[in-house]
What does this fold into?
Amino acid sequence: MANKAEAVSLRKGLSEVVEVILDHDSFVLLEHQKPDGDCVGSGLALVQALRSLGKQALLVSDDPHPAVYDFLPGRRFHTRAGYLKPEDFHPQVAIFLDCTDPERAGRGLEFAAGKVWVNIDHHVSNRSFGAVNLVDPTAAATGELVYDVINELGIPIDKDIATCLYVAILTDTGGFRYQNTTKETHLLAAELLERGVNGSEIFDCVFETRTVSSIMLLSKVLSTLKLYRGGKIASVTLTQEMMRASGASSEETEGIIGYPRSIAGVEVSLFFKESDEPGKVHVSFRSRSLVDVAAVAQSLGGGGHPRAAGALIDGTIEEVTEKVMSYLDKLDVWTDF
Ligand SMILES: [Mn+2]
It folds into this structure.
């Protein structure tokens, strides 16, 4: 929950965003690169809401939407930056969704030049780059803020809009499992269910539906499992050869780190992924409670949060594994538990 001063500035941000929307007729809504469920759901919800007001609005992303969200309504109002020329579309306002800074929109940014910028986000590192800003780091998802905007505009939230917002909140909370899940999150989810959202069907589509290729890939990656430090560190490895052999896409590698992380007794889990850039390996780090993996990743040229971080490191899988393991070996936490 935001404190009082923050609540006042949020209130101001919300009314300014609403004012900009009411004062203009045409909008481009921008997502970040590699869009996730929060920005896809927020974007599709807001584009449908603006259209229902008779406004001209289009949702634009640099990268494609992950196929898992194909079931969401409102897709006819979405296009990719490469499919539309900025000179063919002249919106008055650019609304950035879930973007810490404007560059996160990638090629979508071409549609924002010279427009009024609206910034709606929940990342603590957001740079308040908009002419108006609705930024609330206590919100579990940007979808929560988009709900506030739609509600304040007085637009009825129908089943289609509610479904998109529900997906935004469901995915950014990992299915209501992460620590950002609060009472407010559940109350909003309840409100959306009341609008006709089918919660179990959505959960099934988003979290319980996999492609054969992703299961094939998972079986290959799990067979590389190694334990170190008496089972306190676990690692798995993914090579480009495994990607080719399974036919999986890179978005299907997401979530794999959760498997070594879930092993009882494991404090630090590592996922070594051979980059498609030759000679580089991407490493994902997770820790349960003791090790600050953001510091580990930073010292290896990456960054992130204390419990989840990543780095792109030069070398072969063997060399990078050696580099990371020798760094972790030097930490003095291993005798503490
Ligand atoms: Mn988000």
